[in-house]
Amino acid sequence: MSPYVSKIDRRTALKWLSAAAVTLAVAPTMARAATYVKTPKGYGTDPDMLNPTSPWDRIMTDRQLQLTAVLTDIILPAEGEHPAPSAIGVPDFVNEWVSSPYEQTKSDQKVILEGLDWIDAEAKGRGAKGFVEADSGVQMAIVTAIAKPDASAAHAFFKRFRHLTLGGYYSTPEGFADIGYIGNVPMESYPGPDATMKAMLEERMKAIGI
Amino acid sequence: MKQPTPYDVIVVGSGAGGGMSAYVLAKRGLKVLMLEAGRDYKPEEETPMFNTNAEAPLRGVSTPDKPFGYYDATVDGGWTVPGEPYTTAPGDREFMWWRPRMLGGRTNHWGRISLRFGPYDFKPYSRDGLGVDWPISYDELAPWYDKTEKIVGITGAGQLGLENTPDSPPGILHDTPTPRLHEIMMTRAFEAMGIPVAPMRAAVIQKPMDGRSACFYATSCGRGCSIKAMFQTTTVLIPPALATGNLDIITDAMVYTVDMGKDGRAKGVTYIDRVSGEHKSVTAKAVVLAASAAETARILLNSKDGRNPDGVANSSGTAGKYLMDTVGTDSGGHIPMLEGMPSRNDDGMSGAHIYVPWWGYQQQARKELPFPRGYHIEVGGGQRMPGMGIGDLADYSDVPFGAGLRKQMRHYYGSDIGFAGRGEMIPNDDCYAEIDPDIKDRFGIPVLRFHWKWSEHEIGQAAHMRKTFHEIIDRLGGKVTYGFETDGEKAIAAGGEIIHEVGCARMGDNPKTSVVNKWGQAWDVKNLFITDGAVLPSNPDKNPTLTILSLAMRNANYLADEAAKGNL
Fold first, then answer.
1. How many Cα atoms are found within 13 Å in the side-chain-facing hemisphere of B365?
2. Do B394 and A166 touch (CB under 8 A)?
3. Do A171 and B345 touch (CB under 8 A)?
4. Chain A partners of B184 at a C-beta cutoff of 8 Å?
5. Is the dihedral angle over the CA atoms A39, A40, A46, A50 positive or is it negative?
6. Could you state, in chain order, the average pLDDT of each consecutive group of 10 residues for chain B (568 residues)?
7. Which phi and psi (to 5°) does residue B355 adopt?
8. InterPro entries under this entry (chain B) (predicted)?
């Protein structure tokens, strides 16, 4: 696979920079009450809804980002007209997530980044140059092993990484098309489920006696 | 400096109570000044309508900056407001206080469920000896419900004849959109348990009216509504009030005291300009407080002077007292029956199309239930716009990754459902707000300290909610996925968490035990009115906004009548 090229264009990068600059310019100078904890470098409590930005620095190394791209595509390979996660920028989203300044993503930051380094070392331990360079047999063997439910840190990493991959993927228009979300379109009237679907449901309700 | 405009009325707040008060008073020809602590806000220009979660930071998930998600129509608000703290008394249960800082307040992001209180709800003490009766009856408020529903635009047409769940007169309510697949299924299961299901009453119009477009069954109402189908004071009440020429609005105006004259009447209010930090006073012939229940109490209690050592309108000592929220808890389930169903558009009018009114009045009359008051059930589910929660579906899959996982994701999409109980809390002596003796906000205004304690009535109700949800999930052949705990003490949401906090300046017949009379007029100060949720003497399971709007409409009209007679 050719190296992953970040989907963040120059315009977006400039938007982050200007958003960060604005945040600094209007930072209130008044003494804050002790009970309010501001998230530094977050998007703030009144972000521009129509022009969203996530104004924080990305912390993944290029190696971690390349590894993320390979791993997202192993978890959800392309299929027919449905593209692979790396083809629609999901690795950038994982990077945005683990780089976020917010408290609830802090534990993911540790789990994901340590997990990526671990999986790289694991591939080396199996004779490859690294996870990205390993042949698909080695890659699949490692992912198959960590996908097995147990109490290990490696499985915890797999679960979180899969969660981010799927959330990042299916929240896109390409993801909608795959999973079958057909909303977000204005309609004159609301049709509700069609007769065929209702009949199917009726059968199923009968089967369990309601 | 003398103010350029002599105002008849100052209205503090622009949400349900303040928005409706200003609308009525301006239309009645009074000169009104509205003061809003937050910034100006224009839903037509600011609402992210069709944006996907992929366009938002972190796919739109909740963060401390935006607790209900990136696109939620809350400005500078949430459980904490920058520089505006509040405290909970040591040893008490936590109270959570939701505040926005924007024109229109919580009507920009509210849940939209609009249920009339019923006849029992106005006379609860007479029925079971708990809490306190209202100084008015359902019949007195009914015509105002009619008028309010006509302006707001609410779904739920039909005559159901359910106990203590009043139908509106025919022709007022709009038709609720047809139920979704999972709602058809839920209805069947509830009816199998002998529990009637009703069409949702939501403040989302289904036909064009007053320059507002009908709902177009797309985009989440929680983001606000640029086509004005969803009721927000910023799109429905404030623009026509401004059009009369009788309303001025000052935003970023943090009111902190009612200023009293030597004659015992209110002169006006003092506020802090949040931008410049300046303190400014304005005067008017009457003052309406609608800053939200607890903030209104804070203003009263902070308005201390020689004549009012305990605050303004507080000779009864009940300002800040009898704070209530809604009893809340929820459970979710995974329903195999819904797996592998064809794709369908489950957007609808964003919120649920059905709800379950309280069904246990007769059981309670026979003393068969271990709690005295009712709750209604709200439902969720369907193939909704995917966000970060979608990853959880992989937990059901027997393909953990790779080829075949996509098929599994499609199979499980839309097979999870959720239930939320929303119940009546009975006012008690242990739940109140007072001024914290030490802490001040960034403006130097003393902050509120909350005291909170649930009683056995609420705890018993929360346990019953959970058991009911588990039973319904089981009847549907499903498995509970969250909300397992049936110990009510552990299951119950924190005080304030349901964001239905009311009380703190209750209405009554007796000036010794209430702050305002049945018109929302302070017993102690005849030209001071309260028109927000602070005046509610009880908090039935029915979400309070429709009642706050209806009371505000009724009481603002009374204020205008009294002003015309020269009685204020």
1. 8
2. yes
3. no
4. 193, 198, 201
5. negative
6. 85 98 98 97 95 96 94 95 92 93 98 98 97 98 98 98 98 98 98 97 98 97 97 98 98 98 97 95 98 98 94 98 98 98 98 98 96 98 97 96 98 98 98 97 96 97 98 98 97 97 98 98 98 98 98 98 96
7. -150, 165
8. FAD/NAD-bd_sf, GMC_OxRdtase_N, GMC_OxRtase_C, P2Ox-like
